[in-house]
Design goal:
alpha+beta, 2 domains, six-stranded mixed sheet, five-stranded antiparallel sheet, 4 helices
Length: 372
């Protein structure tokens, strides 16, 4: 064998088994490192993406509440002495009678930190909504009101009759305007406001009117196509709204935004009549004087990320920072000198493995402020 032949065979002998094993090991380590990097990057991407979704859902929830609550009470607060009056309503003769307080916003406090519900009442008219003063007594069975002026009233408008002096046997009544020109008493005029029972007057049930009727000097509030909505968090953690239909008398519930896990609200009250909110609480006013103190609603919304984290990323309940100066019960010191309220989320499965964002704001009741 010549020297050149030996050199050629040495060059072509390939890798040894040890070299192959080392190469495989290095390749496996490289793949492992790349997989871990990709896994962490993908996890961070999902966290950022779902966190962004939570921010959008929370912001939209707060915006929806804010825009509706700001206009709450239009028409209903045109005469502030009607605030707190118990309103009776019944759709159709075979329907069930219900009652609700005549107030811009009613908060139903959730038990033990559970989500609250917020009910908004507002009038919706194409023109100006002004009280209509009764110039004659209105007996219980009479199918029309005689008023000083029906300006702004049209057929199908929702109306609330308010007694001159409220009491246990003198409550407010919800009805709707009718206009049947076949008879004088059922025709809508500048001083006559009909509310005849029938296909066009499903809300006009004389049984829910006070036995003594309404005396001259009482008045009627024009609510137009009345808005009566209740906002809540449903069992599937969706922000939802339930709305009363003036046309059918029924309610319709719609899911608005997902991953909203808590909703808390408080009344902002002016206790010394200086036009400035002094305290916040969840106590439902029961008198006209109590409702006159309510000038704002404070709201907190808790949005949750949809990304389940392997590690516990939320060791304690989210905190609602209510500032250092507000007089609010049930707070603890946080963020230096500020005060916080712990928002309940521990009822959720694996709640510590999700991230949360708290959105809050103070919403002035414009119609309360303007009418006062």
């Amino acid at each position: 064998m010549t020297k050149s032949t030996s050199f050629s065979m040495n060059r072509q002998r390939g890798f040894t088994l040890v070299e192959l094993m080392v190469g495989l090991l290095l390749g496996m380590l490289t793949v492992l490192v790349i997989s871990q990097v990709l896994s962490v990057a993908e996890g961070m991407k999902r966290s950022v993406s779902t966190g962004s979704d939570a921010q959008v859902n929370g912001a939209l929830t707060l915006y929806t509440l804010q825009s509706d609550i700001q206009m709450a009470g239009y028409g209903a607060t045109a005469s502030t002495d009607a605030l707190g009056c118990l309103v009776k309503r019944q759709f159709d003769a075979g329907g069930t009678a219900f009652t609700f307080p005549l107030a811009p916003v009613v908060i139903t406090d959730g038990a033990n930190g559970a989500p609250d519900t917020i009910t908004v009442l507002q009038g919706r008219t194409s023109g100006f909504s002004a009280p209509m003063i009764l110039t004659e007594d209105h007996p219980k069975t009479t199918a029309y009101f005689t008023v000083a002026s029906t300006l702004g009233a049209v057929a199908n408008n929702m109306m609330i009759a308010v007694p001159k002096v409220q009491g246990v046997n003198a409550w407010c009544t919800l009805f709707n305007v009718t206009n049947d020109t076949s008879a004088t008493e059922t025709t809508l005029t500048t001083t006559r406001l009909p509310h005849a029972v029938g296909a066009a007057g499903k809300w006009n049930q004389s049984a829910i009117f006070p036995d003594a009727g309404y005396l001259s000097g009482s008045y009627v509030l024009n609510m137009g196509s009345m808005v009566y909505r209740t906002y809540s968090v449903d069992s599937a953690n969706n922000f939802a709204v339930t709305e009363l239909s003036p046309t059918t008398g029924g309610t319709n519930t719609q899911e608005l935004f997902p991953q909203i896990v808590n909703l808390q609200a408080m009344y902002g009250k002016d206790t010394n009549n200086d036009g400035v909110v002094d305290t916040y609480d969840t106590t439902l006013p029961t008198t006209n004087a109590g409702w006159l103190q309510v000038l704002a609603i404070r709201v907190a919304v808790v949005a949750r990320s949809g990304q389940y984290e392997k590690e516990e990323v939320t060791p304690t309940a989210p905190q609602w920072d209510v500032g250092a100066t507000g007089t609010i019960s049930g707070t603890t010191t946080c963020n230096g000198t500020s005060k916080c309220i712990a928002l309940k989320v521990d009822n959720l499965t694996d709640w510590k493995h999700y991230r949360y964002k708290v959105y809050d704001t103070v919403i002035p009741l414009r119609n309360m402020l303007w009418n006062s």
